[in-house]
Amino acid sequence: MWTSPRQALIFTLLMLSGLRSVGLRLLSMEATPYVSGTHSTAFVTCPNMEEAKKIARAAVQKQLAACVNIIPQITSIYQWEGKIEEDNEVLLMIKTRTSKVSDLAAFVRSIHPYDVAEVISLPIDQGNPPYMKWLSETLPE
């Protein structure tokens, strides 16, 4: 099969390095199994980027969120006081512990400019194990 011992050695080394990367991936995934629902993603709409950044930064500083993604330029269509409204808004996607969602919602309501602030959350079922570990370490119980 091999025309020289050198080709066999190169093949073996390539195989070992390939197995090594697979092994490292498995080890990083196996570290601590993630328990579904330990963390949640909360969604909050804001009237503009300035308000979104203010809420996002404060939530991270108060350890109510590990990370907040700010998604600009969404369009919301909704019913308010009997009329159909359409507004440009900014969406916050907030990663937090499920146990902190109530405190996060209370905090957002306390500083949000809307009369009725949108704060909804969904539990995280699965995720990249190293990222989920980082969430846990960043937001201790």
Q: What structural class should be given to the helix and strand makeup?
A: alpha+beta
Helix share of residues? 40-55%
How many strands, what sense, and barrel or not for the largest sheet?
4 strands, antiparallel
Q: What is the string of SSEs from the N terminus onward?
A: HEHEEHEH
Count of β-strands: 4
Mean pLDDT: 87
Strand content: 25-35%
End-to-end separation in angstroms reads 58 Å
Described by the principal axes of the CA atoms, the overall outline is elongated
What oligomeric assembly is this protein in?
single chain
Note the total helix count.
4
Strand order of the largest sheet: 2-3-1-4
Report the radius of gyration as a whole number of Å: 23 Å
Please outline the helices and strands.
Layout: H1 5-30, E1 39-46, H2 49-61, E2 67-80, E3 83-97, H3 101-111, E4 119-123, H4 129-138
Antiparallel strand pairs: 1-3, 1-4, 2-3
